[in-house]
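Input (structure):
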């Protein structure tokens, strides 16, 4: 079922949804299911599955030369989606990214997803690899999420890369895109960021999932600005409970989000990460209660492989 249909069928009730990471290379699928099992109590109608692009390492050969090798620490997004849908009977929303894909590889991945009966995808630019200062597109790949979205919408219209195909069957993906309440780190300002978000919605994006935020006013202002710009699709807030002190510096750096002074001061007073976790859970519970009052479509939790904080939050809400 499409994400938009799940939201429509909820009749204004806020849903519980999660984003999960594929297991690390070498781990069993059971490691992911052990993480997800407790959260299935809250009946998420769909689960996002992240995609992690190739990185590169240099191995020294016997002759002293360096050999460039590609590595992917979390492979298997398409397979993980199939496993989750089969095991839990819930819809999956795989991330499709620009980084690391040519247009042909993107088309082939989408065809695989269609054959698996996956109805939804989240179209993202993806991150730059660690050895690059900025995002660099693959040769014959996409530089921007809007370009990737354009290819998916072409496939939904029955247009594939091979112009010689006759009577090609169209795909039927419901496509989501990312939204940034505090603007994308590469955007010069929020107004410019909203302009490109509006472009993606006009192209056919049907829902938005936001970057994590810790101040609800940032999300509410973002929604208001989107509506004023003519963006009418559902805007799903992304939630991440803080669990360690190091996240005070890591999260703003990686995700370009601000942490309220009240939250950071309370965490600074914590003696250890056990206390930090309790503060993070309390903060997220209050965030979520306020968001439910505003009838958000779903509370979308970034699990990052840790189910216990999310379970405790959801237990108080659903």
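Output (sequence):
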């Amino acid at each position: 079922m499409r994400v938009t249909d799940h939201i429509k069928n909820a009749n204004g009730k806020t849903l519980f949804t999660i984003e999960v990471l594929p297991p690390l290379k070498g781990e069993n699928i059971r490691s992911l299911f052990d993480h997800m099992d407790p959260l299935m109590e809250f009946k998420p109608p769909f689960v996002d599955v992240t995609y992690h692009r190739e990185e590169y390492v240099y191995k020294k050969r016997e002759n002293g030369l360096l050999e460039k090798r590609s590595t992917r620490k979390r492979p298997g997004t398409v397979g993980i989606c199939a496993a989750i849908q089969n095991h839990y009977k819930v819809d999956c929303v795989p991330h499709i990214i620009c980084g690391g894909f040519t247009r042909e590889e993107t088309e082939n991945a989408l065809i695989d997803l269609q054959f698996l009966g996956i109805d939804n995808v989240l179209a993202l630019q993806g991150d730059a690899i660690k050895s690059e200062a900025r995002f660099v597109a693959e040769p014959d790949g996409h530089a921007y999420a809007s370009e990737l979205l354009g290819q998916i919408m072409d496939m939904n219209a029955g247009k594939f890369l091979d112009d010689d195909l006759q009577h090609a069957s169209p795909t039927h993906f419901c496509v989501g895109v990312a939204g940034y309440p505090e603007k994308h780190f590469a955007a010069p300002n929020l107004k410019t960021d909203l302009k490109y978000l509006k472009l993606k919605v006009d192209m056919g994006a049907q829902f938005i999932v936001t970057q994590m935020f810790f101040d609800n006013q940032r999300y509410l202002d973002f929604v208001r600005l989107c509506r004023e710009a003519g963006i009418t699709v559902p805007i799903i807030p992304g939630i991440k409970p803080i669990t360690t002190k190091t996240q005070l510096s890591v999260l703003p750096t990686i995700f370009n989000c601000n942490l309220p002074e009240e939250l950071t001061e309370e965490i600074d007073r914590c003696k250890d990460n056990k206390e930090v976790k309790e503060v993070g859970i309390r903060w997220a519970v209050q965030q979520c209660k306020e968001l439910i009052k505003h009838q958000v479509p779903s509370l979308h939790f970034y699990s990052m492989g840790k189910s216990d904080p999310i379970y405790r939050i959801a237990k108080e809400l659903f």
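Notes: The mean pLDDT is 92. The chain is about 40% helix and 20% strand.
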